[in-house]
Amino acid sequence: MRHLTVTLLVVYCAVSIGIRTAACEEARRPNIVLIVVDDLGYGELGCYGGKEIPTPHLDGLAAGGVRFTSGYVTAPFCAASRAALLTGRYQTRFGFEFNPIGAKNVAPGIGLPMAEKTLADRLRDAGYATGIVGKWHLGGTAEFHPQRRGFDEFFGFLHEGHYYVPPPWNGVTTWLRRKTLPDGGAGRWTSPNGRILWSTHLASNEPEYDTNNPLLRSSQPVDERSNLTDAFTREACDFVARHHEQPFFLYLAYNAVHSPMQGDDDYMKRFAHIPDVQRRIFAAMLAHLDDSVGRVLAALRDNGMEQNTLVLFLSDNGGPTKELTSSNAPLGGGKGELWEGGIRVPLIVSWKGHAAAGRTLDVPVSSMDATVTALEVAGVPLGKDQQDGTSLLPLITGRSDAAPHDTLFWRVGKQNALRHANWKLIREGGAWKLFDLAGDVGETIDLAAKQPQRVQDLHALWDRWNAEQVQPLWK
Q1: The model's pTM
Q2: Residue numbers annotated as active site
């Protein structure tokens, strides 16, 4: 009888534990993986019309999730765009209007203001493990370090860019901007071994990306020999594997395809058929990036987390076509501008079992919406300071097709713009121009003279929004 009692007790405990474990698994909050790539043109991915460079992994992410064709960021360059993404607020509300580059990265006071809570802050306070892999660019001094902004772990660099491999750049072909060629002339120069190319087409020198900008694990410099695209992928996969038993937030911020242009040998061979070497290097970088995202998605599958992970993918701004060859087709303009090519980006959301697979939506959405969506799926209440973003859950689950915003706004110094329904108002220090994006996505036909009342009404909308913004903290 004693043995029977013990046996029944063991069975009861095992069943109880099993029930609790199953309940915990069912109730576990979803993981969140936010993948941000750098300077990717709107028209490069296959799922956004690109035909020259295969991107099967990102195309597959879109096929299994929701692809937004009118996805916008809040600024046409890196840091300001990321400031809004990680806070869910227009960066002009807290003075982060311009892009710190070079020595400005380490100037006192330049960074994401400490009063602003990041997505990582909020998720960590809600019990999530948080990690950033890749590019930070929201302050290069100690007070702004990612691990003081809500991230438990950091592997990456703090400034705007970084060489992909250390000197002497073995295993890659490197394309650099220069003001003058070795012979004193202009055009292109190729080293005797074909490994290094100089070009004067932009009349500028390649920035000193690595100066005072070491690759870090936490705050300690590391001697990384792998290509950074591979290193960031390795670290992301490791983070996923180590945290598979708890909800986590991974911010994977690749620096690809940002300059300096460095194409890995194996990928350069894959695109040997592309005659222009600059374009060939870009193709190598983008294919390398696509394969790397594929490896991260595979890590989620291999660790049994595909069904319980919200994956958000976007570029931080449009492509700088002359610098990288990155295409923003069919949009006009590019990085640094408020034309569509500078602010409309690929934006994909995938959540297996929840997102309506293969859904494509053309309603205007913002990167700030991605932030609010992440908070909602994590069960984190929105604060009063989240007023600029709107959850995309009704759209990605198929419950709604309605646009989450009536109007989106932009301000970068004298560059100003808004989108209201299909109307785009834009100025670059002069008079407003008006475009109907429904039939003119390339912004080629200015309707301002024909519709002065509409210009006046939209201008009034922009003025009311602008009155809520603050002066930039630096220029």
Answers
A1: 0.94
A2: 78, 137
